[in-house]
Design a protein that fits this description.
alpha/beta, 7 strands, five-stranded mixed beta sheet, Nucleotidyltransferase, domain 5
Length: 240
Amino acid sequence: MELNVHLRATDGDPLPDPTRYRHLVGSLVYLAVTRPDISYPVHILSQFVSAPTSVHYSHLLRVLQYLRGTISHRLFFPSSSSLQLQAYSDATWASDPSDRRSLSAYCVFLGGSLIAWKTKKQIAVSRSSAEAEFRAMALLTAEVTWLRWLLQDFGVSVTTPTLLLSDSTGAISIARDPVKHELTKHIGVDAFYVRAGVQDQIIALQYVPSELQLADFLTKAQTRAQHGFYLSKLSVVPPP
C-alpha cells in the first residue's frame, strides 16, 4: 500500500464484475495466514469486497506484484528459540476516513519465532489515541491468555507474566491506575480485563519506543526502509 493513502468505498468506478476481485482477496486472506507482511493491505482491501472499484482493484494488483517479487519469502523459526512469550500491541487512531474507527494490531513471539498476529478494525469509535491503544492492548491480552493456556496444555511451564510492549504511555497509565474513572468509564470492560491481566500476572506492561514497535507494521503502510526493517524483525525472509 502507498504511504498516506486512505481508501474509501466511493473511490474510483464500480467494477462491472466484482467476482475476480473477491476471488483474489479470498486467496490473499488465505495467504496472509503465513505472510504477516500483507496483513494490513489485505485487511483494507477486504472491506470493499461487496462493491469494489477500479481504485481498489489497482491497489490489489500492487499487492500481487509485491508477492511476485517476494515469492521466496517465508516465516523463519529458529531452532534455538526459547519458550517465552513476548507481545506487541499498537493502534492507528481514527484511521478509517469513512467512520473514524481505529485499527488495532498485535504480534506475539515465542522466543524468536512469530506465532500470532492480527490486524482488526475496532468496533467502536475511540475518543483519543490512548483509548485506541488501550483497546488494542485488551485484544492482545485475550490472545496472550489463550496462548498461555495452550502452552500449558502442551506441558510448557508458564510461570512468569508475558511481556506486553506498547508505545503508548497513556494506555499503560490507564491500565496501571484504577482511579482514572473518567478515562475508562466508556471502555469499562476492556479496562477491567487488562487490569485483571496485570493483577493476575498474566501480562506485564512495558513501554517500547515507536521505532521499535513491531506491531506498527500491521497498522499502516511503511517506507521501503521501514518495510525491510520490519521484515527482518518478524523473520519474514527468503531462504538462506
